[in-house]
Design a protein that fits this description.
- With about 230 residues, the protein is of the alpha/beta class.
- It folds into 2 domains: about 120 residues, Rossmann fold (3-Layer(aba) Sandwich); about 70 residues.
- It is about 55% helix and about 10% strand.
- It contains 9 helices and 4 strands, in the order βααβαβαβααααα.
- Strands 2-1-3-4 form a 4-stranded parallel beta sheet, with helices on both faces.
- Helix 4 links the parallel strand 3 and strand 4.
- The longest helix is centred in the middle third of the chain and has 31 residues.
- InterPro entries: Resolv_N, Resolvase-like_N_sf, SSR_resolvase.
- Keywords: DNA recombination, DNA-binding.
Length: about 230
């Protein structure tokens, strides 16, 4: 197969999805730098949010389709980002698809098979350790699965939760009454002008900021009038 381009593959587990995207950005930078060093054209990028044991994931399959059509090389930051299945990896290599990993730039087909077998073994050990840990937790009487948290018998009252917010907004408006009055005495009467003047004076907002908008000033003026 002629290595004319690199098809980037990114896989993020469900646990990783909840964290910052910096991990994914680092993988993307690694793959793109690898493709550039090889002198290939970046032909496509695909991402999946799923476990590495699922080789039916749509991004993985779409990338393989593009590779077969264009003669491109699947590239990932690490081999397990492509697949953790030794059988899948061996089948792709036998088919003639030259898989590459940015952290193993010099690995040939034989090395890929060895690392693929190791990745699959690692996944099997993780699954076994998880099964044993869950069994031990059940033996201790722990209740697993589902939402174990307390739930109120009825949803919170919207009016009750809105009242404290209304009182806080009213107190804030009255604290600004002197500043607003002094600015009006100078001839500034529009909401936009009042907002600009308070921002310039550095009068803090309820959340600790200093920038105000004419929309918030309109609400404050309405509360003062009331």
């Amino acid at each position: 197969m002629a290595e004319t381009g690199g098809a980037a593959m990114y896989r993020v587990s469900m646990a990783e999805q909840g964290h910052s995207g910096l991990g994914l950005e680092a993988r993307q930078a690694s793959v793109r730098a690898f493709v550039e060093r090889e002198g290939w054209a970046p032909v496509t990028e695909h991402q999946d949010i799923v476990s590495g044991k699922d080789d039916r994931r749509p991004g993985f399959q779409a990338a393989l389709t593009r590779c077969r059509k264009l003669g491109a090389v699947p590239v990932a930051a690490r081999l397990d980002r492509i697949t953790r299945g030794a059988h899948t990896l061996s089948g792709l290599l036998t088919e003639g698809i030259s898989i590459r990993a940015a952290d193993m730039p010099g690995a040939d087909g034989m090395m890929m098979r060895v690392y693929g077998a190791m990745a699959q073994k690692e996944r099997e050990l993780i699954s076994e350790h998880t099964r044993v840990a869950l069994a031990a937790a059940r033996a201790r009487g722990a209740v697993l699965g589902g939402d174990q948290g307390w739930k109120p018998p009825a949803p919170p009252c919207a009016a009750a939760t809105a009242e404290p917010r209304k009182e806080k907004a009213t107190r804030t408006a009255h604290r600004l009454a002197l500043e607003v009055g002094a600015i009006r005495a100078k001839g500034v009467t529009t909401h936009q002008g009042l907002a600009r003047a308070l921002t310039k004076q550095g009068v803090p907002t309820p959340r600790g900021g200093t920038v105000r908008t004419h929309t918030t000033l309109a609400r404050i003026v309405e509360r003062l009038a009331a």
